[in-house]
Amino acid sequence: MAPNGQASSPRTRSGANIAPMALLYRRTDAGRKAWDAQESSVPLEYRRVLGLFAHDADPRDVRAKLGWSEGALNDVLEELEEKGLLERYETDDRVDLDFTGSFSVAGLNPLGRA
């Protein structure tokens, strides 16, 4: 129990308010060239994955499209990173790539009328 008499939960403890970082991948210049040229030196399976990272993408979405296990996709992503064809980066989880999370009709109307 917290000092104020309320039950303590993991979400209210110190540091719990830190938003998790979203992990995204994007093609590097070398990855774009390999995809555009459909280089035979890059296995077809890898090119298929590169094609799904035309824009910054969440690996969970790509995994769902491919129907692969998390481990299988992670192995390929690791290989593509090692070859310099993809790069991984973290972004603030509040970034809304599909622009639907913070939509508000009131935000569109400067007078605040719905």
Radius of gyration based on Cα positions: 20 Å
Helical content (DSSP H or I, runs of 4+): 25-40%
Q: Secondary-structure element order, as H and E?
A: EHHHHEH
Cα(first) to Cα(last) distance is 43 Å
Give the overall pLDDT as a whole number: 77
Number of strands: 2
- Rough shape? globular
Largest sheet: 2 strands, antiparallel
User: Largest beta sheet: what is the strand line-up?
Assistant: 1-2
Beta-strand residue fraction: 5-15%
- Uncertain residue ranges: 6-15
Class inferred from helices and paired strands: alpha+beta
* Number of distinct helices: 5
Written account of the structure:
The model is unreliable at 6-15 (pLDDT under 50). The chain has helices spanning 29-37, 44-51, 59-66, 70-82, 105-108, and strands spanning 21-27, 86-92. The protein has five helices and two strands; from the N terminus they run E-H-H-H-H-E-H. It has a domain at 29-92. It has a two-stranded antiparallel ribbon. With 114 residues, it is α+β, with helices and mostly antiparallel strands. The N and C termini lie far apart (43 Å).
Kindly summarize this structure in a few lines.
With 114 residues, the protein is of the alpha+beta class. It contains five helices and two strands.
